[in-house]
Write a structure and sequence with these properties.
Distance between the termini: 19 Å
InterPro entries: ADH-like_C (IPR013149), ADH-like_N (IPR013154), ADH_Zn_CS (IPR002328), CAD-like (IPR047109), ER (IPR020843), GroES-like_sf (IPR011032), NAD(P)-bd_dom_sf (IPR036291)
Order of helices and strands: EEEHEEEHEEEHHEHEHEHEHEHEHEHE
Structural class: alpha/beta
EC number: 1.1.1.2
CATH class of the largest domain: Alpha Beta
Protein name: alcohol dehydrogenase (NADP(+))
Largest sheet: 7 strands, mixed
Number of strands: 17
Helix content: 10-25%
Enzyme class: oxidoreductase
Number of domains: 2
CATH superfamily of the largest domain: Medium-chain alcohol dehydrogenases, catalytic domain
GO molecular function, one term: alcohol dehydrogenase (NADP+) activity
Length: about 350
Amino acid sequence: MTTVAAYAAPAAKAPLERTTIERREVGEHDILIDIKFAGICHSDIHQAREGWGEAIFPMVPGHEIAGVVSEVGSGVTRFRVGDRVGVGCMVDSCRECDNCRAGLEQYCLNGATMTYNGIGRDGLPTQGGYARTIVVDENYVVRIPEGLSLDEAAPLLCAGITTYSPLRHWNAGPGKKVAVVGLGGLGHLAVKIAHALGAEVTVLSQSLRKKDDGLKLGADHYYATADPATFENLRGSLDLIVSTVSAPLDLGAYLSLLKTDGALVNVGAPEEPVSLNLFSVIGGRKTLAGSSIGGIRETQEMLDFCAEHGIGAEIELIGAAEINEAYERVLNSDVRYRFVIDTATI
């Protein structure tokens, strides 16, 4: 085991603090990554504060990891020392179920091993990217193309793939009208990606406060959901809605915006249950769906796509001592659009 510096939540809802953690030695198929940057995802806050249920403490959050390979195991074939790499929300899966074999490791039928707040094959809790290094099996690591800077690439490992996957699955592209609910860490990347895919993109946000940003990012239209006229004017006009917000929505109102056979896909996960009148989906043969991250192949595809189209996250780079302040700012929607930790400051 190797001791490394990290920032951890010692208990639920407790401020994160500098500490040390143990990383396993590099095994035959492992790579050691010197973490350069780690994004702050709203999921980190949900889990560090047990908003999604009981969690494992002390907890080192962070599943938007960008860094450089510093050591490889004897059996590693995909990477070598010096490679620019990323790690997202999972670091292992069973590798044997139908989903794993299909490249859908994120939906592993036996449960994927999450990058943090999970239990690894060694029976020990996993710890995430708010740290100086991490050891990961090569099969759960992706290559970051040279066209992407590591700091702007880090949020792509969660926010990027979380929005890319449903956009691809539901065929966003030319001739499709796609709406993104919320212009935050996930939403701003959803707009960029949907635009690059060739879709006509609408942002649905509570207010018009970020309208100029949304249009610069690639949106064709921008509407305030606080205005009841929005739901009247857009009724029955959209093919796909991707909701990135983690607050409960009036699902019936948003479903009313869809064309026949349209889909409302949720990638934000509220802590509270939501309700639905089923007539909202019966009328118009509409789909209410959810989507997680992507598999390893799709995550690499997403990174290559983003490099090709010049898509990186809009970031605010912070030092590790600012993590707790950043959490509060995320909760107050006071970030444009993703905090990224410079891990050299840990």
